[in-house]
Amino acid sequence: MNVQSGAARYSAEFDQPVRGDMITADRYTSREWMEGEYEKLWPSVWHLGGMLADLEEEGDVIRHNFGRESIIMIKQADGSVKAFYNVCPHRGNRLVLGDIASTPRITCGYHGWQFDASGTLVDVQDPDDFPGGNPCGKVHLTEIQCATWGPFVFWAMNDDVAPLEEWLAPFPERLKGYNLENWVRVLNLSADCEFNWKIIRDNFNESYHLPTIHPELATFINDGLPTTLFEMYENGHNSMWMIGHQATSRKDYVSGDVPPGLYEAAEAWGIDPKEYRGRTQEVRQAVIEAKRKHGAERGYDYSEMTDQQLVDYFHCTLFPNLTITMSPEQCQILRTEPHPTDPAKCVFQHWCLYPPVKGMKEVVTPVGNAPLKHDAIQRHSVYGDGVSLGFVADQDLSIGTTQQQGLNSRGFKGCMLTYQEKRIQRFHELLNDVVLGHPTEQAPNAGEE
Ligand code: FES
Ligand SMILES: [Fe+2]
């Protein structure tokens, strides 16, 4: 595949070669691929399980249903968090049935076996009736890896997954200045969707769709290729720096008035947009200066952020299924998770976190204003039933079902990507390596000069 040239801009320091494997349709539609992912992919990566804010006291529990698995994370007496499969060792009943719980003992709903916060069996009915003697104190829930980063709790099924901070690299370092550990998850949305989880992963691995699917963003996010920087890391994660507080360079927004969107963003920082007529691209620098000058008095802590972090959008796409999009005032978590049995379905999740700002009672979320408090808006819906998952997310999801339908067609011969979609190519090559154990055949356009 000819990926040596093109209009898109890749970091010289963080770039990765791709082979040009065909991105076949079966990965979105077949049960074999889904089974391969359950067996080889999902156990080998860290999963974002929940928020530390839900684990304040010993015995507080978060349940994370992931595909056909269910994991529970439990706060321990010493302040640490342990994660276990949510399954009773007696005869396999699922133990915790709610999203969060707080209990000194987890009690199985079938025969009443009880476990303490450390996962140890502490009480059973008829303890003398076991051939091997009373199992209490000897039997434990099956524990898996658990670790925290910032305000988040993660879990991993395999023991040999790299330590969390190492696995997340380079993001813990890159995101340090935002001080995410204090941020509050205000928005917690999820929805059942009628497409494979990778369809939205592909979408988050490219910005080619911005002008067509999100035309409204063009007035205050510059999606032009010359200024958008893509970074690809060896571990499979990648990122995109997109210039914010500036209109797209795909059209002439510079010579006229400051366009709507950018206009309001400027006004919000006390900048008169009318003064920037004919030089609208300079609004970005003015916002940087205004934030430096007035940020602290408005309760924001911008002290450890770079100028770029103050105004631009940093999209962090972690292999395989987690996206963290940063601006100084909002952190969006977007991800898709597989359906337990159907490769043509997934669960979409959208969280928004906000920094604690003194005196601020309300924040603007993608679905409207909400109080600045943990899980102020929380809901699960079915995509397409009219419940919004956020304006921009709705736009992305709108292509999911029709793309899934198209991928089912005998007429689809495999993806044909632009240079700027190279992150999609790498994503699928890594999947081929992990799930299939080998590359697929070369794409039809591979090797063309
Ligand atoms: S299955 Fe849990 S106590 Fe029997
Ligand atoms: Fe999008």
TrEMBL record:
Instruction: Indicate whether Iron appears among the record's keywords.
Output: yes
Stored Pfam families: Rieske (PF00355), Ring_hydroxyl_A (PF00848)
Location of the Rieske domain? 48-155
User: Per UniProt, which keywords does this protein have?
Assistant: 2Fe-2S, Iron, Iron-sulfur, Metal-binding, Oxidoreductase
Q: Which domain of life is it from?
A: Bacteria
The record ties this protein, via InterPro entries, to: Rieske_2Fe-2S (IPR017941), Rieske_2Fe-2S_sf (IPR036922), Ring_hydroxy_dOase_asu_C_dom (IPR015879), Rng_hydr_dOase-A (IPR001663)
Cofactors: Fe cation
- Molecular function per GO: 2 iron, 2 sulfur cluster binding; iron ion binding; oxidoreductase activity
- PANTHER family, from UniProt? CHOLINE MONOOXYGENASE, CHLOROPLASTIC
Q: Please report the name of this protein according to its UniProt entry.
A: Rieske domain-containing protein
Biological source species: Croceicoccus pelagius
